[in-house]
Amino acid sequence: MPILRRLAAVVLGSATLLTFTQALAQAPAAEPSPAPGPTLAQVLAEAAAADWRRPDPENTVYLDLDSGRVILELAPDFAPLHAANIRTLVRAGYFDGLVILRAQDNYVVQWGDPKADDPALARPLGNARTSLPGEFDRSAERLSFTRLTDGDVYAPEVGFSGGFPVGRDPTGQRAWLLHCYGALGVSRGNTADSGNGAGLYVVIGHAPRHLDRNITLAGRVLSGMEHLSVLPRGDGPLGFHSDPARHVPIRSLTLAAQLPVAEREPIEVLRTDTPTFQRLIEARRHRREPWFLDPVGRVEVCNIPIPVRRAEATAP
User: Fold this and answer.
1) What is the pLDDT of residue 316?
2) What are the backbone dihedrals phi and psi of residue 58, each rounded to the nearest 5 degrees, phi first?
3) How far apart are the first and last CA of the chain?
4) Hey, CA dihedral for 312, 314, 315, 316, is it positive or negative?
5) Cβ atoms of residues 60 and 70 within 8 Å
6) In what order do the strands lie in the sheet containing 52-53?
């Protein structure tokens, strides 16, 4: 009898455990609690004036289309030769009246001279250089770098430098710009030195990070992406327009420095080397907005915005 009682107790215990396990499986999961801290909107609302910067007018380019203005910021710290050549071309009016000749869905839009491959018909480059060595990366020494600790597939380290998303190899001490949404790149042929800034593109789709360190990135879009992302897609290979009549005309490209101060766009960009930007990263890593049921807890470098705002006009 004692043996039978012990056996019954084991069976009863197993049944009780099974019932408890089933109850756990059927019970609704507890909602995860987001890490304490502010939302992105709260971070920006609490940002101090010193957390914002005015882009350098010499490196700020206005791309004017019939639909509106796109504001670009060049990155001379990463592509000094290409930034200088682009400034030379812009000052000479090289891009004025050219066209956006490619719009590939979930990838890029590209502009330049549709006759660039015909020396007899191509628009003259003037004082600009005809070819430049590829500026695919630079030394990471003495580079301001706000590191993202979540890891990355394409680079040993990623983070931000001077307002741009950046990859870094601490072993080889190299750093490079990343193909995030809005990145401004220099079109080229098969050789590394076949680009010069006369043909440019902007990423309008999911970040094509496989292009990192294969093409020179010369900057990024600060505002006006809505004028590029909605352009009619090209019907030819790689999104090029097969019919020139479908090319989107460019009114002009202008450096902010070419305009009087009163005519420049009064914009400010959130600095990426401040505690405020670190708080912004945390707000994107742990989504605390009421809509989120899962606060995520991780973030990818191209999913961290670098906010831009309109500022008070500069007093005369």
Assistant:
1) 39
2) -75, -15
3) 102
4) negative
5) no
6) 52-53, 267-270, 308-310
In Å, what is the CA distance from 47 to each residue of 50, 96, 218, 271, 279?
Answer: 8, 38, 28, 10, 10
157-161, strands of its sheet edge to edge: 138-139, 174-177, 164-169, 157-161, 146-148
60 CB contacts (<8 Å, ≥6 apart)? Answer: 71, 72, 73, 74, 222, 255, 256, 257, 264, 265
Taking 50 as the pLDDT cut, the residues of the chain under it are 1-25, 27-32, 313-316
Closest CA to 164 of 141, 137, 192: 137
Q: Model pTM? A: 0.87
How far apart, in whole angstroms, are the C-alpha atoms of residue 249 and residue 197?
18
Q: What percent of the chain has pLDDT over 70?
A: 87
Could you tell me the domains of the chain? 57-262+300-307 (2.40.100.10)
Amino acid 36: pLDDT: 74
The whole-angstrom distance between residue 39's C-alpha and the CA centroid of its chain comes to 21
